[in-house]
Specification:
The complex is a heteropentamer, with one copy of chain A (about 270 residues), one copy of chain B (about 300 residues), one copy of chain C (about 220 residues) and two copies of chain D (about 250 residues).
Chain A lengths: L14 H9 L2 E5 L2 E2 L3 E4 L2 E3 L1 H12 L7 E5 L5 H6 L5 E7 L2 H4 L2 E10 L1 E6 L14 E5 L3 H9 L4 E5 L2 H10 L4 E5 H8 L8 E3 L7 E8 L3 H17 L1 H8 L23
Parallel strand pairs in A: 1-5, 1-6, 9-10, 9-11
Antiparallel strand pairs in A: 2-3, 3-4, 6-13, 7-13, 8-11, 8-12
Chain B lengths: L1 H6 L5 H31 L5 H4 L5 H37 L4 H16 L2 H10 L1 H5 L5 H27 L2 H9 L4 H16 L1 H14 L11 H13 L2 H32 L27
Chain D lengths: L2 E15 L2 E13 L2 E5 L6 H8 L7 E6 L2 E2 L4 H10 E4 L11 H11 L5 H14 L15 H13 L5 E5 L7 H16 L3 E5 L3 H7 L2 E6 L2 E6 L1 H6 L4 H12 L1
Helix pairs in contact in D: 3-4, 3-5, 4-5, 5-6
The chains are: A alpha/beta (about 270), B mainly alpha (about 300), C mainly alpha (about 220), D alpha/beta (about 250).
The structure holds adenosine-5'-triphosphate (2 copies) and magnesium ion (2 copies).
């Protein structure tokens, strides 16, 4: 596991900056089961999140080879940061106020939105069409909660992994899968599902993806934001997109650097 | 076979014919059912090549299944050692002459037997860090959870085992001048362990399977890696689950076979749990004993 | 306890345990019937039946329950098309009941079988020697005695079943453990009290159940 | 005491347990009213012999006839035969979950279809005959060994059997209880019951048996009236065996 | 054979099991080298008497002295005392998970702290003395009853006890094995071992005992040399008991 305090380097700097300086390595929490974003293909991790994490690490002076990847699931991201199991989390991590009480966010580096994945021939055109339909998401996730509260007439099926939702969708046991559009796009783009599904394309929420770090690591947060700004201008952000989600033909989004967080300063 | 000796008379010629007919009828019915299942899976395209192809490729095994299996086995092995130790300790504790040892040991055992393992693991991972002000790795959350639960069950098995040893064994030991802890250590615990070997092994099988509950804290064990992570890449969740189930069945069967072999060997070497003689003391009525089938 | 003061949370807590109790109740009945039948198979003089019983026990006892429940959804329901209700939750509930039952039946079978083994062979021989037929021997002499020896282990199996019901959460039923997970996710500051409430509820249900079965087994024990 | 045709006839009976030849070409006939005592070292096949007679053990070859008909192999006919042959075991084997009286009436009611009231009356009379009428409503575990064995004899007698088999009926008993069981057996013998008795009680063999059979290694080695057998055993095995059990 | 002060002295010993008065004011002294046989009906308290002497059963009142000192109540001192009093049980109670030789050496090594090699040598000598040296590496269940009981005697002797207690050492044995165990006991008696023997083997009592004690209902009813006791029992109870076990 990671060293609890991130290590105070010889320079006296604390947080991730200090750790990156003194130890020249970082532990970064990422998803392992989300194609296009963060997926573990054997011993490697691949995806847009992974590339962003590499950019951040590089900006902090840590070589990509010195990153220790740690698989996180939605539920353990805050504990991992709070307990120091990881230094950073880049794992489809939506910035919201509830989470801001526990961790600090840099970014957002991407704005996703909740959407629906349906069979290619489905008539469901948006969340309104879900009444009486069966919709699948991951147990206890924000998208699942939103369906429950905002579309209570939909029947919600929950599994512990999206891949099970996708399989249920393929088999016709559920009519739609819901979560962030970009995650759905990642699945739809997988070769084994080619032509079978479509992302409805009508988002009904805003999910700004942030980079999580310790609540009190304001310096680290600001540094990460700087790195993101630089990445937007020097083309590495676009390169990261093109190497991963961009492969499906979707053009790279603009990284709106004016929207970056203030790292918790009031 | 001993069961049949209790229940059935030796079959005569008519009984043999009847048994043969029953065999055939049931066998045909079973085959038909299996065929139906096969056909349905076929119809649903579950036998399609691209779902199964990954299992012909080395990376599937070297990158997913084997690392997961290694974690599973490692966690199970650690959990087995710890829960055996825990089991013996608390069994002896519950048999102590001092109430201030017996009662707390009893409370601990009863509590951990009553709380679902899923809750335990979850709590150790998310809750205990608040108590100890430091992270608990998923591995240890799983292992400690397994230890507390299976250790408690084993404690009860050992206790039942120790109580099933005829009083004569410990009396004979006292009579040669052993102290209570020597009697426990040299006579009762070894015999209880052998007498309870089948129960202990089925509990260890349970423990091995229970590592699968590690998914709740994203512990990268066989189920997580071999089913969830693999199918996130290849979209073959049903095929992957079939393969993983087969692996579990094979490993657990091996464990059971090993235990049966050990059991037979100790019996061949002549170890037999001595029969309870009709002593007027109040040993508990010997009930049937089985493992507790948690997850 | 501010978490449970919120009526939504209290509702979730209550309905979580209600699911657990329903799952336990329905599966207990099914598993008992199935387990006794399997035990009868396993001790029968017909090799195919014995083999079937043994295979059942070996397969289901050696597979993680998580996987069995998974197969109930993706095998039984998705692939074989056996839907048990149109309502999504009820369907998952019954799929869970099927999974818990086939799994628990393997343990019930073993408990019953070892219970039959506690009846000394001499009892059945004596019954046969006075001219009782097979079924009379079984009904009048063997089963009543085996039944009593089997109470305690069946109690353990029931308790384990109740705890195992939490695993049905993996196919989306909001039973107690899923509720606890949810509550902890949204009340990160109250992890310990939430856990204590859920664990305590389980203990409050199961510890007395355990003692009850112990007491019953002692009462019914056949004195030899 | 032998009258008419023999009641039990074994002819060339062989039995194996796996590779073990437990009964080796045993031929024996027991006449009506005859009392035959079987002795021999442990493992010589005495119990097995006894148990083949009511087919608790099937045999591999040879024939066994009871009362003129070969032993049925199974089913109702076998159950009927068994109800006509009483059996008493070394370990009593009373039904542990039934009272003494229920033990005795179970057979008559369930097998013979007798009225419970009638069976009860006869059961009480039998318990009285073996001297434990006052224990009728107790459970087996509450009785001494000697009382249990007498109850077991009453249970067998309740079926009004044509013959009785005893497999070491006294060897699980405390010494001062042996006498009371042997007394019951002696009185049975005197009343003309056909009996096959495996026992080590030489006193009983001497004064109650018509014939003593000595077995060794599954073979029937000697078959003689008790006086002759004890005074002058012919085989070495028998001499050796008798010297061991009679000297201390 | 009695020399000097007595080795075992019971004085006014009382013991209850709940409401049951199992030992009723028992006083008894056993001299060094003396062999005392205890007989009596089942439940009369013979085993309990035997077991109080090495405090496997605590007593409610009275005193028991062994070799001049009162029995210690617990702890090391009690364990030491027990190691000086050998005990042989009806059901052998060999440690089922240890070989015969390990059974014999366990006490010397673990209790006395002897070197394993030395204990082993002495153990083998003892097994030889009781005639089962060739069974040293077998497990108890592989031996016949007679062999097991002789191993149990060797185990007790291995502690070099000052006295030996036997609780019905032959009553769980097949009749042809009783002799071999009694032979070992007789030779021990001849070698001057102090022995308290509960047994129903009247032959042994007659020719090996210095005194016979008859117990009934927890009371010590008679205490006499064997010849006198058997020829002329004084109490009704003893007469009745003897008639029961000697007649069949
Ligand atoms: N069910 C069985 N399976 C295998 N072997 C058996 C079985 N029953 C008895 N034997 C063996 O058959 C032989 C004869 O057994 P049997 O019980 O008839 O002897 P016995 O003369 O009655 O001896 P004992 O005096 O010890 O009762 C023994 O070697 C015994 O081990
Ligand atoms: N642990 C005990 N608890 C209660 N009662 C007991 C206990 N041990 C023995 N008794 C009772 O004490 C009485 C004397 O028992 P003890 O075993 O000393 O008799 P015994 O003379 O050795 O009889 P036996 O010849 O049957 O061995 C009996 O009535 C017995 O039931
Ligand atoms: Mg026999
Ligand atoms: Mg006794």
């Amino acid at each position: 596991g990671g060293d609890g305090d991130g290590g105070s380097g010889s320079s006296g700097a604390k947080g991730i900056i200090g750790k990156a300086q003194s130890q020249k390595k970082l532990v970064i929490g990422v998803k392992a089961d989300q194609p296009g974003l963060g997926i573990q293909t054997g011993s490697q991790y691949e995806g847009f999140d992974i590339e962003i994490a590499k950019i951040v690490a590089k900006g902090l002076g840590v070589d990509a080879n010195n990153i220790e990847w740690k698989t996180t699931v939605s539920a353990n991201r805050e504990p991992f940061i709070q307990q120091g199991t990881v230094d950073l989390v880049v794992a489809t991590y939506t910035i919201n106020d509830e989470r801001k009480k526990k961790v600090n966010f840099a970014g957002p580096y991407f704005i996703a939105g909740q959407d629906l994945l349906v069979k290619a021939d489905s008539t469901i055109a948006g969340p309104e069409g879900l009444d009486g339909k069966k919709v699948c998401s991951v147990t206890g996730s924000t998208p699942a909660k939103r369906i429950q509260t905002e579309h209570p007439k939909a029947q919600l099926q929950q599994f512990d992994a999206y891949s099970k939702c996708i399989t249920a969708l393929e088999g016709g046991q559920v009519d739609a899968v819901t979560t962030d559009d970009i995650i759905l796009a990642g699945y739809a783009a997988q070769s084994q599902y080619a032509g079978k599904f479509k992302v409805v394309g009508k988002t009904f929420s805003t999910e700004p993806y942030g980079i999580g770090l310790k609540k009190d690591d304001k310096d680290g947060c600001e540094k990460v934001n700087e790195i993101l700004k630089a990445a937007a201008s020097d083309g590495s952000y676009k390169a990261a997109w093109d190497a991963t989600l961009g492969k499906s033909g979707k053009a790279a989004p603009e990284l709106d650097t004016t929207k970056l967080t203030n790292c918790g300063s009031v | 076979m001993s069961t049949s000796a209790v229940l059935y008379d030796h079959p005569g010629p008519r009984a043999r014919v009847r048994n043969a007919v029953l065999s055939v009828v049931f066998g045909v019915g079973l085959a038909a059912l299996l065929w139906w299942v096969y056909a349905k899976f076929d119809q649903a395209g579950q036998w399609e090549g691209n779902l199964w192809k990954p299992f012909a490729e080395a990376p599937t095994w070297t990158q997913f299944i084997w690392p997961g299996l290694r974690q599973t086995l490692f966690a199970a092995a650690t959990g087995m050692v710890l829960s055996l130790a825990f089991g013996i300790l608390f069994a002896v504790g519950r048999l102590s002459d001092h109430w201030w040892v017996r009662v707390p040991a009893g409370v601990v055992v009863e509590f951990f037997r009553a709380v679902p393992l899923l809750l335990m693991i979850f709590f150790i991972f998310y809750g205990v860090p608040f108590l100890i002000q430091g992270p608990v790795p998923a591995f240890w959350a799983v292992v400690i959870g397994l230890t507390l639960y299976n250790g408690s069950v084993l404690a009860e098995a050992f206790r039942a085992g120790i109580r099933s040893i005829p009083g004569g064994q410990s009396e004979a030991a006292y009579a040669v001048g052993m102290r209570k802890n020597q009697v426990m250590r040299l006579i009762l615990v070894p015999q209880a362990a052998r007498a309870m070997l089948p129960v202990i092994v089925s509990q260890l099988v349970v423990l091995l399977k229970d590592t699968a509950l590690g998914y709740i804290v994203a512990f990268p064990e066989l189920l997580q890696r071999g089913v969830n992570d693999l199918s996130a890449n290849r979209g073959n969740v049903v095929a992957a689950a079939i393969v993983v189930a087969a692996i579990y069945i094979v490993i657990n069967s091996l464990l059971t076979t090993l235990a049966n072999w050990l059991d037979r060997r100790t019996r061949r070497r002549g170890f037999r749990v001595p029969k309870q003689t009709a002593a007027p003391d109040s040993t508990p009525a010997g009930g049937a004993t089985v493992a507790e089938p948690q997850g | 306890m501010h978490v449970f003061a919120d009526p939504t949370n209290l509702d979730a807590y209550l309905s979580g345990f209600l699911w657990i109790l329903k799952l336990t109740g329905a599966s207990a009945v099914l598993a008992l019937v199935l387990g006794v039948l399997l035990a009868a198979f396993r001790v029968s003089p017909v090799p195919v039946l014995r083999g079937f019983g043994a295979a059942w026990v070996n397969i289901f006892r050696n597979t993680p329950l998580t996987l069995i429940i998974f197969f109930c959804y993706f095998g039984l329901y998705s692939t074989l098309g056996v839907g048990l209700s149109d309502d999504l939750n009820l369907n998952n509930f019954w799929l869970g009941v099927v999974g818990l039952s086939v799994y628990t039946a393997a343990f019930v079978c073993e408990a019953v079988r070892s219970g039959v083994n506690t009846v000394p062979a001499g009892q059945a021989e004596a019954a046969r020697a006075i001219g009782l037929t097979f079924f009379q021997t079984l009904r009048i002499v063997v089963l009543p005695q085996a039944g009593r020896a089997v109470v305690a282990p069946l109690g353990s199996v029931l308790i384990a079943l109740c705890k195992n019901a939490t695993i049905v959460g993996t196919i989306g039923l909001m039973e107690a453990s899923s509720v606890m997970k949810d509550l902890i996710n949204s009340n990160g500051d109250a992890v310990i009290p939430i856990f204590l409430v859920f664990a305590g509820t389980f203990a409050a249900i199961l510890v007395p159940t355990g003692y009850f079965f112990g007491w019953l087994a002692n009462r019914l024990a056949v004195k030899r | 005491m032998t009258t008419g045709e023999p009641l039990i006839v074994l002819d060339g009976v062989n039995k194996w347990f796996g590779p073990l030849h437990v009964l080796d070409d045993v031929s024996l006939s027991v006449g009506r009213g005859e009392v035959v005592v079987v002795i021999g070292p442990s493992g010589s096949g005495k119990s097995t012999l006894c148990r083949t007679i009511n087919r608790l053990e099937p045999i591999n070859s040879g024939t066994i006839t009871f009362d003129g008909t070969p032993l049925p192999a199974e089913g109702k006919a076998l159950a009927r035969l068994r109800s006509e042959v009483g059996m008493v075991f070394q370990s009593f084997n009373l039904f542990a979950h039934k009272t003494i009286l229920e033990n005795v009436t179970l057979g008559p009611v369930k097998v013979r279809g007798e009225k419970p009231a009638a069976a009860r009356e006869r059961g009480l009379a039998l318990l009285d005959r073996v001297g434990i009428a006052n224990q009728a409503d107790k459970y087996p575990a509450q009785l001494s060994g000697g009382q249990q064995q007498r109850a077991a004899i009453a249970r067998a007698l309740a079926m009004q059997p044509k013959a009785m088999l005893f497999d070491e009926p006294t060897s699980a008993l405390d010494p001062e209880m042996v006498g009371e069981v042997l007394d019951v057996m002696t009185s049975l013998a005197r009343d003309g019951m056909t009996m096959v008795v495996v026992t080590h009680e030489m006193g009983f063999a001497r004064h109650a048996a018509n014939r003593v059979i000595f077995m060794a290694d599954g073979r029937l080695v000697e078959d003689a009236p008790p006086a002759e057998f004890f005074a002058n055993p012919r085989s070495e095995r028998a001499k050796d065996f008798l010297s061991k059990i009679l000297t201390h």
